[in-house]
Each structure stands twice: as C-alpha cells, then as structure tokens.
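[recover] target loaded
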C-alpha cells in the first residue's frame, strides 16, 4: 500500500509584484529546439502507439508532453495509486528516444474526488456550486484539493523525477477562472488582513465611506460577485477597490497552488518546472508569477491571420516574464482549433510561419496540441499532427514533417539566445482590470486592443519590444510606451522620468495617471503623477461610441492629416509641453489632442515625453512611434515592406540570427540587409541581394561574422 499520509503544505504567502525578486530562468537541458507536443496515448491501443512513433520519426518529433490529463488513471481512488499506464507511456517515449515534458495532471479532476470532497468544485460568479464535470475547475482554497494535488505531484516526482527522459515538469493546465465559495471568501479575508492589517486601512483603501460600506468586522467582507458588488455583470463593480483586490487575491491563490505542486516536485526532482500560460489572459496577473516559474511557457492560438503583431506581442510578454530569457511554445494547433464558433484551418505555410515567429521572439521549442486527435468528447475535431485516420499524406502531416526537418537543421544554435531590444511596452494587469471593471468614460474601451494597437507600429518598423511590468528596470530602454497606465503605483512615475532625463522617449496617453494602487483618484489634475513629466493637464474627457472618429490634425498640416481618435477624447492644456496635434471636430475642435514635452539633457540632447489624449488610430500612432524610433535610430531594415516582420536574436555563441517572416498577402521584393546563411535552406546570401519573398516565406539568417581585423 503506498504511503499517502498528508504532507505539510507551505504557508500562504502574500505576493507582490516581482520587483527585486530573482527571475532568472532555468530551461530544460536540451541540445536542440524541442519539437513535438501534447500526446495522450492512454486514449489508444498499443498498435496505434507503434504507428504513432513511426510517424513521429518521420516528422522528427523530439519531445512529447504526457500526463496532462491522466489523474483518474494514476489515482483511481484516494487510496489507490496505479502508475501502470503512465509507466508504459513514459517508458515507451524514452525507448523511442524522446524527451518528456511531464504533466502533474491536476488540471482535470477524477470524478471520485468531486463526489468525496464536494468543496473541491467551485462556486461560480452567480453563486452556483458546481457539480462534477468539465476541467480547470478546482477550488484553490479547498484543503482537500490542495492536499491531493500536492500528493500526486510528489508521487510523480518520486517515480519519474530522475527518469533520464524527463526534462521538464508541466504543472496543472492553463490556470484560470475564479471561485466564490466560502473557503475562498475566508482565504480572501486572510489575504486582506495580511495586506491591510487593520480594517481602518482597508476602509480607507476601498473608500467604503461611499454608499455606507464601512466594514467593522472582517467577516462582513464578501467576494465581489453577481450577488454582491457586480449586479451588472463581471465588468461592472460598485467598488473597484474590492474587485481589484479580489483579482489580485485570485491570482495569488492560483499561484499558491502552483507553488504547492512545485514544492512537492522539489522533494524529488530538480528539473525545471513550468505551467502553460495563455498569453494576455486577463484573469491572472502573470507578472506576479515571474519569480516562481523556472521558465515561462504558453499556448498560442491566434484568432486572426491579419494581426501578426498581436501574436508577436504575446510572445514578447512571455519572454518578459523571465527578464528576456527564452520561453517554451507549449501548444499551438497544427491545423484547426475546435472551441470557436467557426474553426477555419491554418492556410498552407502558416503553421511554419507562426512557429518561426515564436522562435524569432524567444521560443526555444515548437510544440503542438496535439500529436493525435481524440476519438471522442469536445476536442475530437481539434487539429492534430495525426488525424483519426493516422495518414501521413495529409497536408497537415506533411507541413509538420517539413517543419520538423527545418527545426532539426537549425539544431541548438538558438538555444538560450537573447533578444536585443531598446524599446519597452509597459503592461499592468491592475490597470487592465481597472479600466475594464468600472463605469465611465467608455465601456467599449479594451486594454488589450489598445496595447496591441500601440505595439503595431513598433512591429511594422522592425523594432523589437520588451513587454515589462511597471516594476521593471527601465534603464536599458530608449523608447518606453505606457498606454492606459491608469493606475500609477510606487515609483513608476519616477522611473519613467529617468528615461526622459537620459534622453529617451516616453509615450503615454489617455486615461493614464488617473488613480492610485487602490484605484482611488488622485486629488490632482489628470494625469496625476505623470502630469509634471508630460507637461500637460486634462481639462475634460469626452467619449463617443466606437466608430465615431474625431480627426486629429497635426500642426502645420492645415487639416491634411488623415489621423483620427476614437472613443475617448481628452481636451489637453499644455503646461510645459508643445502641442503637436489638435482635434478637428466637435466643440473642442482646435484644442490640443497630442502634446510632447522636451526634457533638456546634458550635452544639448533632449528627452521626449508624448501624451496622446485619445484612442489614436493606426496612422496617428505610427506617426508618433516612427518619430520616436527615428530619433533613436531604431527603425529596422524592412519598415517599408508591408507585412514583413523582422526580428533578431543573439545566440549564446555571440552570433546574430535575423528572422524575416512574411505575413503579407502578396509577394514582396526586398534588398537583403546583411550577409549570412539561411539556416533553413543552407543558402549563402549577401547584403544587397534582391530576394522575392512569397506570402508565408521565412528566412532565418545567421549573419556572417564581420572578418576579424
Ligand atoms: C488548451 C489546452 C489543451 C487543449 C487546447 C485546445 O491550450 O491546454 O488541453 O484544450 O487548448 O486548443
Ligand atoms: Zn473556492
């Protein structure tokens, strides 16, 4: 009988942002880019496994992620552990020479667990206690879940932690959601006590004097749900402070779960531990996880073909979690997704293009969900390297195998390569939550689409971006964009100031600097702590329905400017800044819309601080960003080629590798910017060569080192 005595679990800790915490990454030890993906052989008989591995050989699959959904097999009852299937899966993969990323499997519960411990299933936003079903649905406050999850992680680590084929741990799966049960309410109160210590502090932070909310006992505090502060839905709270803290708490509660499992793994295994993130996933503040991940990894399922900069930005976010270290692309579909209303296939060449895009932005792996398609249940139509027929002559398989060959050819040269950047985009989950959870001024405003719009001109110019938290060290950047920096916390304003005082460029804009870390308004003109830096104040803020545009006319152009603003229109009053553009319509026509303050720097140079008072369109944003990039000589070589993405990584050997990724719909003729070898074809190319890039073409150019002098 296995020993299943409960193990002591770590105490709750309250985490802040990772300022000052070590975030150095530790990646799986491999000598090549990992190529493969999620594989669930427990779903098929042995003869299929034989065929699968033959196919994997043909596609040069090096790595499989297993055990992500096997908890009901490994622990069919609380007192029964059965590793026979997982042993077989792990051994077979090892015998076939594959590396293994091993799941702890705690993202999907076995049915007995929910029945035996009803507190494990969550209570939803509407207050309904869920019954058994679905996945990703355990309450992170349930002592039973926490105990059982840590135990299985411990047992897995004990059994497989020193297996030579296992290279990494994959905890849970796609952490997400929130729980509103009594246990979570109690944990929330505990978290609040640790944060505020006294109710006076809490009442002050939440401004509870409004609507007679003064709390006199911690037990009066409720999680903000449809039954309490959110009558109007998840995006409408009566008390921003409560909701903001609950989102932070929920992030920390999920993180605690990850820590529990990681701690259990560490009892027996020193291998790197990750969990698969989801890019810009609003419910969890991934920046709060940075220090706890050994390496970052994520699942890339872009919705659109025509916004490659949005995917690039998500990769940059992942790379930013570990201070620029590479991450793993843990999942992507090799053909289709299943969960959307309409699920088109990836067009020919797109999986390859998007895979190299991931590598270009710092991925040290190219992994799929999934290696073979499920026979039944909701993902049976989800794309897979092998479909139900197992054929090797499908377009998908041929493309996967073709890419496998390329990945093999590139080998280990890019492992650990860094991304040289001089530009940063500041992302702040607190601001994201704050601008989308409350009334006024415009409910249609979306944080993610705003930062994506701002990232686009950097992408178009071929200027790589680091995505950083507000706590980041900004001293390495020439251009720092901080859109919708709604909450200004700690010393953020001071650190932005030093960018300008070094001669750098800071770009911020509407609805920034409005509130403090508790989402209480600054008792000052907007943009609050940024006002002095930007040399501007906001006199009033107008709003309009999406699609209602107000021309933004750059000075000196006599109304010829095609730029326009949308949704939010701040009427600006310069106070030290120069007016660069004005509104073209409405009662504030002619009033300032965009300003720029010049900051004098020693040696006659100057720093710049832009303030953009509206949700500016692509034309306007491109104009501002291009001005900033040109000033710092950061415009890439193909800025004038539509759809052509340019990115660079510097390999551990010091070699520079450039990526040219053609996302555009038409052929592009370019003049090559540097000499080197295309790692995908072995072709030697020279600077100045005229090359035609077809849609979805990729060049991975290892630059020739300049001859030693
Ligand atoms: C996520 C999950 C996988 C699978 C895929 C389908 O990324 O982690 O288990 O559901 O989506 O796209
Ligand atoms: Zn709960």
């Amino acid at each position: 009988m296995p020993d299943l005595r409960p193990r002591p679990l770590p105490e709750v800790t309250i985490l802040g942002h990772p300022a000052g915490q070590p975030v150095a990454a530790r990646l799986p030890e491999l000598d090549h880019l990992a190529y493969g993906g999620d594989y669930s052989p427990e779903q098929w008989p042995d003869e299929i496994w034989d065929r699968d591995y033959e196919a994997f050989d043909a596609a040069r699959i090096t790595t499989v992620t297993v055990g992500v959904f096997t908890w009901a097999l490994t622990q069919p009852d609380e007192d029964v552990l059965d590793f026979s299937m997982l042993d077989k899966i792990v051994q077979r993969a090892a015998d076939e020479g594959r590396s293994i990323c091993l799941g702890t499997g705690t993202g999907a519960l076995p049915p007995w667990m929910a029945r035996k411990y009803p507190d494990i299933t969550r209570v939803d936003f509407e207050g309904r206690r869920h019954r058994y079903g679905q996945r990703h649905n355990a309450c992170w406050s349930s002592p039973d879940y926490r105990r059982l999850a840590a135990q299985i992680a411990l047992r897995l680590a004990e059994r497989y932690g020193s297996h030579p084929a296992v290279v990494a741990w994959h905890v849970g799966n796609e952490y997400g959601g929130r729980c509103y049960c009594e246990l979570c309410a109690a944990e929330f109160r505990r978290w609040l006590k640790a944060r505020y210590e006294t109710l006076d502090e809490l009442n002050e932070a939440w401004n509870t004097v409004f609507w007679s909310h003064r709390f006199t006992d911690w037990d009066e505090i409720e999680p903000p749900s449809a039954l309490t502060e959110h009558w109007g839905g998840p995006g409408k709270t009566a008390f921003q402070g409560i909701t903001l803290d609950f989102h932070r708490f929920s992030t920390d509660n999920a993180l605690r779960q990850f820590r529990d499992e990681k701690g259990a793994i560490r009892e027996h295994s020193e291998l790197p531990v990750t969990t698969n993130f989801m890019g810009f996933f609003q419910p969890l503040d991934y920046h709060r996880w940075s220090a706890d991940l050994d390496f970052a990894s994520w699942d890339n399922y872009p919705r659109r073909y025509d916004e490659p900069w949005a995917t690039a930005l998500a990769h940059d976010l992942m790379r930013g979690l570990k201070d620029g270290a590479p991450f793993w692309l843990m999942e992507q579909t090799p053909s289709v997704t299943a969960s959307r209303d309409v699920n088109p296939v990836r067009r020919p060449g797109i999986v390859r293009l998007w895979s190299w895009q991931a590598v270009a932005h710092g991925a040290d792996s190219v992994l799929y969900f999934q290696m073979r398609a499920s026979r039944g249940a909701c993902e049976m139509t989800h794309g897979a390297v092998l479909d139900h027929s197992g054929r090797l002559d499908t377009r998908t398989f041929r493309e996967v195998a073709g890419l496998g060959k390329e990945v093999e050819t590139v080998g280990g040269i890019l492992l650990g390569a860094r991304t040289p950047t001089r530009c940063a985009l500041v992302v702040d989950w607190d601001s994201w939550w704050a601008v989308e959870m409350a009334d006024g001024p415009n409910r249609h405003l979306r944080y993610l689409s705003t930062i994506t719009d701002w990232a686009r001109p950097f992408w178009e110019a071929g200027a790589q971006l680091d995505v950083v938290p507000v706590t980041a060290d900004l001293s390495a950047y020439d251009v720092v964009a901080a859109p919708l920096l709604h909450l200004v916390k700690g010393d953020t304003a001071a650190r932005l100031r030093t960018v300008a005082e070094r001669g750098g460029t800071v770009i911020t804009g509407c609805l920034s600097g409005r509130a403090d870390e508790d989402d209480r308004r600054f008792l000052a003109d907007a943009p609050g702590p940024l006002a002095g830096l930007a040399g501007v104040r906001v006199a009033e803020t107008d709003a309009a329905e999406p699609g209602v545009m107000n021309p933004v006319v750059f000075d000196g152009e006599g109304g010829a400017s095609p730029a326009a603003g949308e949704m939010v229109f701040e009427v600006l009053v310069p106070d030290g800044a120069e007016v660069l553009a004005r509104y073209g319509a409405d009662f504030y026509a002619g009033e300032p819309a965009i300003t720029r303050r010049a900051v004098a720097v020693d040696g006659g140079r100057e720093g710049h601080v832009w303030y953009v008072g509206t949700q500016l369109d692509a034309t306007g944003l491109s104009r501002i960003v291009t001005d900033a990039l040109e000033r710092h000589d950061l415009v890439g070589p193909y800025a004038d080629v539509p759809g052509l993405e340019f990115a660079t990584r510097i390999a551990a050997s010091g070699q520079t590798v450039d990526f040219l990724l053609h996302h555009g719909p038409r052929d592009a003729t370019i003049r090559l910017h540097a000499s080197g070898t295309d790692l995908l074809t072995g072709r030697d190319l020279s600077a100045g060569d005229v090359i035609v890039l077809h849609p979805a073409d990729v060049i991975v150019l290892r630059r020739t080192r300049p001859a030693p002098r």
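[recover] notes: Residues 1-18 have pLDDT under 50 and may be disordered.
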